[in-house]
Amino acid sequence: MQLPRRRWLAALAFLAVFCAALASSAQEQPLRIGSKRFTESYILAEVLAQTAAPRTPVAPVVRQGLGNTAIVYEALRSGEIDLYAEYTGTIALEILKGRQSMTREAMNAALQPLGLGVAVPLGFNDGYALAMRAADADRLGVRTLSDLAGHPALRLGLSNEFIGRADGWQGLAARYGFGQTPTGLDHGLAYEAIAAKQIDVIDIYTTDAKIDHLGLRVLEDDRRYFPRYDAVLLYRLDLPTRLPEAWAALQTLEGRIDERAMIAMNARAELQGTAFDVIARDFLAAGKPGAKAPAATDGAARGFMAKLFGPDLGRLARQHLLLVAVSVGVAILIAVPLGIAVFAHLRLRALVLGLTGLLQTIPSLALLAVLISLLGAIGTLPALIALTLYSLLPIMRNTVTGLAEVPAGLREAGTALGLTGGQNLRVVLLPLALPTLLAGVRTATTIAIGTATIAAFIGAGGFGERIVTGLALNDRELLIAGAVPAAVLALLSEALFEAIESFMRRQRGEVPASI
């Protein structure tokens, strides 16, 4: 009777240790901070992280450039992040679909059932506005948005998010009677386009650094369409209880950042190339005894080679390789058996190949958005599923093609030798179809390497992270620093598959010699 009792005691002790480990793990869960995909949001995420870092048990995790409002909000709602910097106008009109005059108390009342809240007004308003070149505005006599409506020939280049937002283009066009059809542009690229006179009017954030730098005129919203966009923290309600000291530290930021300070920080990022974490560190250090003013050219030394071989290169390479390897591996496990199963059934084969071909026609960002909605999660999981779906067609198609290319005489020879269907498949058909099947895997790998750069738009990392940030900053060097490693990885994969195929050709050439 003693032995069972000891076993029970050992099991209870193990369970207690396991529960204690889980509790310890929960206590050490890091503060997770998100950001949207524009300069100011990147900077504010670093300010939040560095403010909370001294008061957290483990270093905060910053998930930069997650995408537009819908994606970052979904990340918060699903618990992927704990908080991010948002704007009151966006919360009222875009997230809650409420009124322009919605108070912070009303926002909290509407968000509370969702487990979310609004707090810590940071001290500045970053509103939407339209801007055009000042010289053109003076020449045409355009000072207000009503004046702009009287010039339908002017070309509008607006960010895609602004065009689709509840508080964006459609409502603005209805209020002012705009008849133009705007062109959708990335927010960072729009500044370059208006400077090159490819477009005449863009939407801007009022704290953008390039407004004065490019000599743009911000047009007056004379019919008061846009609400105030005061910067606040949108957070999960369990955060103050889970990390009370970090939350207390974050509250010290209330009212600390004014418009002038935010514009100056944006300017350091966009005009001087200063890293976001350095900008945040210098801002938080300002006002401390003995603090030095930030160097005016501290970003100038960050040339192309420094960006290409930056400290994030190893991390991004690991993330990119993981996305490609796992997605292509899973696609092989699905596509090869499925290709074998449908090979002998012509109609079913056509149906399955048609469906997998249809997946290839879905734009990658649209597919990622659908997966985020279905899974309620961002990051690696939806990225892996999307990459796997894109990899199915070339592998499955080449599996079927390879089997179909096996001569009829060799198929019948296996049967004549008394091989069963499964044995004939393993011994005769698949070995002969292997070169064609491998070519499909090669194509799928190349597609996955290129498509994996898009995964950074939903926080899955990889070399696309540099591309996303480069787009936000309109930094060509950073864009190239993300594109070059992805291209090198594609070339290395081609070299690897070429070596495998060469080895297989040599192996096939040795068979007759040995006979």
SSE map:
Layout: H1 2-27, E1 32-34, H2 39-52, E2 61-63, H3 69-77, E3 83-87, H4 88-95, H5 104-111, E4 116-119, E5 128-133, H6 134-140, H7 145-149, E6 156-159, H8 160-164, H9 169-176, E7 183-185, H10 187-195, E8 201-205, H11 210-213, E9 216-218, E10 231-236, H12 239-242, H13 244-251, H14 259-272, H15 276-285, H16 304-308, H17 313-343, H18 346-360, H19 364-375, H20 380-404, H21 408-416, H22 421-451, H23 464-473, H24 476-514
Parallel strand pairs: 1-2, 6-7, 6-8
Antiparallel strand pairs: 3-10, 4-10, 5-8, 5-9
What would the principal axes of the Cα set say about the shape? elongated
Given the structure, what is the number of helices? Answer: 24
Oligomer: single chain
The percent of residues in helical segments reads 55-70%
**CATH superfamily grouping of the largest domain:** MetI-like
Which structural category fits the helices and strands? Answer: alpha/beta
Give the overall pLDDT as a whole number: 86
Radius of gyration (Å)? 28 Å
- Strand count: 10
Strand content: 5-15%
CATH topology of the largest domain: MetI-like fold
**Under the CATH scheme, which architecture of the largest domain would be assigned?**
Orthogonal Bundle
| Sheet with most strands: strand arrangement | 7-6-8-5-9
Low-pLDDT residue intervals, each spanning 5 or more residues? 16-26, 296-301, 511-515
